[in-house]
Specification:
heterodimer, A: 111 residues, mainly beta, six-stranded mixed β-sheet, B: 113 residues
Chain lengths: 111, 113
Amino acid sequence: AQSVTQPDIHITVSEGASLELRCNYSYGATPYLFWYVQSPGQGLQLLLKYFSGDTLVQGIKGFEAEFKRSQSSFNLRKPSVHWSDAAEYFCAVNAGNMLTFGGGTRLMVKP
Amino acid sequence: SAVISQKPSRDICQRGTSLTIQCQVDSQVTMMFWYRQQPGQSLTLIATANQGSEATYESGFVIDKFPISRPNLTFSTLTVSNMSPEDSSIYLCSVEGLTYEQYFGPGTRLTVT
């Protein structure tokens, strides 16, 4: 069965600083990989997805993620964080028509 | 991407009662999914609902507690039955896109007292 690990439960960055959120997955083949964001009191919004091709994928709101097969990772990055990026971020893998989520990383942004 | 709405957006219920949550999609979809997000936790899949067939429940979830209806290709309901405070969660429905991503509704925030 597939699993997803987000090692960092909380991350605090200063506004304007760069950001990297880590995600590791466990699955026998290449899965479909996703990052979602959940703002307080909101549903989940899809930031980006990887299913084949270029291992560096661009998403909405200036986010990007890089798929590294050798490390079973799909880390999310943003070069300059804005205060409005404060939210919960979830990495997810779809393998066999089932979406499995990581535990989430809560991002706080300092002014 | 699909536009999904849920009703109610939030509710406060007494233990022992039941609540039915509605999920409406703006396009026809084959599969709809129901998730639970307990306070401060990630999402856990409750069941997958296909139109015209019984819902498929994940381990730890049973039909008697979470009956699901799927009367057509744009609508589904989830009922949380005989509620206890442990059922206090956000309940989300979702649909699958063309490349196995899922699009989520805004969620229903349930508090059981």
